[in-house]
Amino acid sequence: MSCYKLCELQCCVRTTEHINNIACSYCYILNCQICIEGNIASGKTTCLEYFSKTSNIEVLTEPVSKWRNVRGHNPLGLMYQDPTRWGITLQTYIQLTMLDQHLSTISAPMRMMERSIYSAKYIFVENLYRSGKMPDVDFAVLSEWFEWITQNIAIPVDLIVYLQSSPQTCHERLKERCREEEKIIPLEYLEAIHQLYEDWLIKKTSFNVPAPVLVISADDDLQKMILQYEENREKILSGTNV
Ligand SMILES: Nc1ncnc2c1ncn2[C@@H]1O[C@H](COP(=O)(O)OP(=O)(O)O)[C@@H](O)[C@H]1O
Ligand SMILES: Cc1cn([C@H]2C[C@H](O)[C@@H](COP(=O)(O)O)O2)c(=O)[nH]c1=O
């Protein structure tokens, strides 16, 4: 991670330290940005809630409430009802809200964020496109936006924690959570998302992986998950997978 890039993001001005490319006060405060990745209902929010009790960690959950209500509209619900028509609408908004989270001022030495601008594009946009539910022109416009953003704005990620779960487990948990918009999600949808995650973060054959990956098996019950979080606490909080 370059402290210089982070400083620019935080301060938005070129201080003397920036000009001389040395660490300013922000460099000493900011240490680490961690993204928690995984399929729908794999346990990301639950994991973030657990770590939110640790001091010096800022937790950013996905802004799903915004995706369900932007000025009275529900792009998440619309997308599930008619992905071909509304996929671009939802994904454009998700890309914006993810960028906003990545760039928001950090209030603690460490930040844990649910998913990232990368998974929104490499997993969800890709899935809509590959399944024939996103028109070529929509995919092209979203890709142009994504490439411009990632080539022109520094989006620092130090570690990806991948909660690796079976699609069947996610399907069970999704039914239990019972979010209205997601009631129509079939197992096949979760299988497609799972495969895209595996290709990206495990096989590393599809897209650029922006940070080291720590894999945590997420099919276990809550008690066992907590044990795993404790076993991996040091790796996670040091922002490294070694
Ligand atoms: N390890 C677990 N075992 C059983 N149920 C879980 C576990 N982790 C989370 N859940 C439940 O599964 C549902 C989805 O979890 P959540 O953390 O919201 O997933 P995500 O944020 O990845 O979509 C919630 O109802 C949650 O209480
Ligand atoms: C990032 C992203 C998410 N979604 C959808 C998938 C789920 O229905 C919700 C997020 O819920 P989760 O429990 O946190 O997985 O949003 C999407 O359609 N596109 C995206 O890019």
Automatic annotation (TrEMBL):
Segments forming domain Deoxynucleoside kinase: 34-237
Residues annotated as catalytic: E114 (proton acceptor)
Keyword set, alphabetical order: ATP-binding, DNA synthesis, Kinase, Mitochondrion, Nucleotide-binding, Transferase, Transit peptide
CDD domains reported in the protein's UniProt record: dNK
UniProt EC number: 2.7.1.21, 2.7.1.74
Catalytic activity: 2'-deoxycytidine + ATP = dCMP + ADP + H(+); 2'-deoxyuridine + ATP = dUMP + ADP + H(+); thymidine + ATP = dTMP + ADP + H(+)
Main subcellular localisation: mitochondrion
BP-aspect Gene Ontology terms: carbohydrate derivative metabolic process; DNA biosynthetic process; nucleotide metabolic process
GO molecular function, one term: deoxycytidine kinase activity
Residues annotated as signal peptide: none
Location(s), subcellular: Mitochondrion
Cellular compartments per GO CC: mitochondrion
Key word ATP-binding present: yes
Key word Plastid present: no
Family: Belongs to the DCK/DGK family.
Protein name: Thymidine kinase 2, mitochondrial
Lineage: Eukaryota, Metazoa, Chordata, Craniata, Vertebrata
